[in-house]
Amino acid sequence: MPLCEITLIEGRSPDAKRELMKEVTEAVHRSIGAPMEAIRVVLREVPAAHWAVGGVPKG
After folding, report:
1. What are the structural domains of the chain?
2. What torsion do the CA atoms of 22, 20, 39, 47 make, to the nearest 10 degrees?
3. Which pLDDT tens digits describe the chain residue by residue (59 residues)?
4. Is there a catalytic annotation at residue 2?
5. Of the residues 2, 14, 47, 57, which is catalytic?
6. Which residues of 6-44 are buried (b: 16+ CB within 10 A; e: fewer)?
7. Rounded Cα–Cα distance for residues 25 and 17 (Å)
8. What's the DSSP call for residue 9?
């Protein structure tokens, strides 16, 4: 049972997140042959103020 965990800065639309989960699931299925129903995708959203690049917060 593959588990894909993705961490994002919050703010994307529900449609965009659904599409991401669908595309990731399909990519895992294609690349390793795991059954679609066995693939899990978890999205974690964090506030921009809690995300830094090079020590600089994004929000």
Report:
1. 3-57 (3.30.429.10)
2. -150
3. 999 999 999 999 999 999 999 999 999 999 999 999 999 999 999 999 999 999 999 98
4. yes
5. 2
6. eeeeeeeeeeeeeeebeebbeebbeeeeeeeeebebebe
7. 12
8. E
| Distance from the first to the final alpha carbon of the chain | 35
C-alpha 29, offset from chain centre: 16
pLDDT, position 59: 84
Single pTM value for the model: 0.88
**Can you give the pLDDT at residue 43?**
98
The Cα–Cα gap between 28 and 34 comes to 7
Q: Residues 2, 38: contact at Cβ < 8 Å? A: yes
